[in-house]
Write a structure and sequence with these properties.
heterodimer, A: 112 residues, mainly beta, six-stranded mixed beta sheet, five-stranded antiparallel beta sheet, B: 114 residues, seven-stranded mixed beta sheet, four-stranded antiparallel beta sheet, 11 strands, globular
């Protein structure tokens, strides 16, 4: 089993729709979680951290389910500009980057 | 303020050659990490340097090496290039160790090995 798994997609949804995708992780001791966004042929950029109580940033909502070991990202009222690959990132703990694990990403395409 | 800068942005090499990739972190950031990203995959960790010391190494062969300079810039070296080394090489900087997960990436160096 991969340490961090994501549905690769692509998710192809119409503008204005709500879309959600999950990311599962295998290490139950993982401490921090993030969603990064990567546009085609660009570098990843931090979208949002994921807090235990769930958190929202505008149209984006991130949630953590420790019991089932997954995090989710919900995008409401999707825009054409939301088309990108969304990378799930898990940090089992500590300050070393060597422990940070990136998922393979979920590709999202918003159609007019 | 300048973000993370990497050079070169694109390069083409042949098998067996050597390549050096360079990275300048955001001013004030002391941690630099290197990642390899092949098409369709997430970034794979190669090295982390913090305060000029290696703090982590990923599962890459000894052909890969790196160092960090007193000004916190960094170099990634790859010897005896293989076709499979073709990838986007990303450098990320962070203020402290990378444990917070907030990594700031450069635009990457796209390496093609023929």
């Amino acid at each position: 089993r991969k340490e961090v798994e994501q549905d690769p997609g692509p998710f192809n949804v119409p503008e204005g729709a709500t879309v959600a995708f999950n990311c599962t992780y295998s290490n139950s001791a993982s401490q921090s979680f993030f969603w990064y966004r990567q546009d085609c042929r660009k570098e990843p950029k931090l979208l949002m951290s994921v807090y235990s109580s769930g958190n929202e940033d505008g149209r984006f909502t991130a949630q953590l389910n420790r019991a089932s070991q997954y995090i989710s990202l919900l995008i409401r009222d999707s825009k054409l500009s939301d088309s990108a690959t969304y990378l799930c990132v898990v940090n089992p703990g500590g300050s070393s980057a060597s422990k940070i694990i990136f998922g393979s990403g979920t590709r999202l395409s918003i159609r007019p | 303020d300048a973000g993370v800068t990497q050079s070169p942005t694109h390069l083409i090499k042949t098998r067996g050659q050597h390549v050096t990739l360079r990275c300048s972190p955001i001013s004030g950031h002391k941690s630099v990490s290197w990642y390899q990203q092949v098409l369709g995959q997430g970034p794979q960790f190669i090295f982390q340097y913090y305060e000029k010391e290696e703090r982590g190494r990923g599962n890459f062969p000894d052909r890969f090496s790196a160092r960090q300079f007193p000004n916190y810039s960094s170099e990634l070296n790859v010897n005896a290039l293989l076709l499979g080394d073709s990838a986007l090489y990303l450098c990320a900087s962070s203020l402290l160790g990378a444990g917070t997960g907030e990594l700031f990436f450069g635009e990457g160096s796209r390496l093609t090995v023929l």
